[in-house]
Amino acid sequence: MQDRTPAHRLAQVLVEAVDTVADDFDTGRHLRRVSQHCAELLGALAAGVMYTDVGSTVRIAASTRGGELARDLLEAQHLGGPCMDAYGTGRPVPPVPLSSADALTRWPAFTERARAQGVGATFAVPLRARERVLGVLNVFSAAASNGARPAAGPQETETDGALALAQALADAAAVGLHNHRAYAGYRNLSRQLQAALTSRVRIEQAKGILAERWDTGLDVAFEALRRYARRERLVMDVVAGMVIKGALDDATLRGNGPPPPPAARENPPNP
Known about the structure:
The chain is built from ten helices and five strands, in the order ααββααβααββαααα. It has helices at 5-18, 27-42, 67-75, 82-89, 101-106, 108-116, 152-214, 218-232, 236-245, 250-254; strands spanning 46-52, 58-62, 93-97, 119-129, 132-142. Strands 2-1-5-4-3 form a five-stranded antiparallel sheet, sandwiched between helices. A hairpin with a 5-residue loop joins β1 and β2 (58-62).
């Protein structure tokens, strides 16, 4: 029976890459895991992701395997490299032998730096979600021993497979990031709506307390709350909470003597 372990391993990694809907999710930690899985599955020296956070700050997440090398080569691409090309075009950069004239022409500084650290080839794939590029996954492979190169056919098949696998990981990671950002946005909106509802309930409760205590209308009580909030530069919700807790006496709240006369119930004074 054919060994299905690699397929099972890849399936597990892809599921992990999209499992991001959690309150304790950390983008950097997640992408470091994706990079590590990629390096392990491809037998690469290292892998890393260059990405932007919600504030558009460029960040780096590197695999544990060859982490220092990955971070160094990702940071070195500010003058050009496979990451910058993939990010700019939104398309993968197929494997490029760093001993080739093409690599030296395209990315001279990066190529020299990578070769000095034993990297023989590199490629990059974008993290794309709904046509938006969220980052780039860059893979760094060792040079072939003694400069040997496999025949053209197998080499093309092998590199195409590596590129496809890395792109699958990058796509899954991008979906995961997109889903988490959507989840975080809805979660924050839900919290804001809940806070607004809670605030409204407190204000209504405080109005009812004052209206009953002063034997006046709710509109008069609301105006008193609003005037005090403006005078003391406080949020209405805070003033309402003080009334509910009994931390604000009537004289302090009104700031100008006794409760409003009965006539004020129908025609409250303008603030």
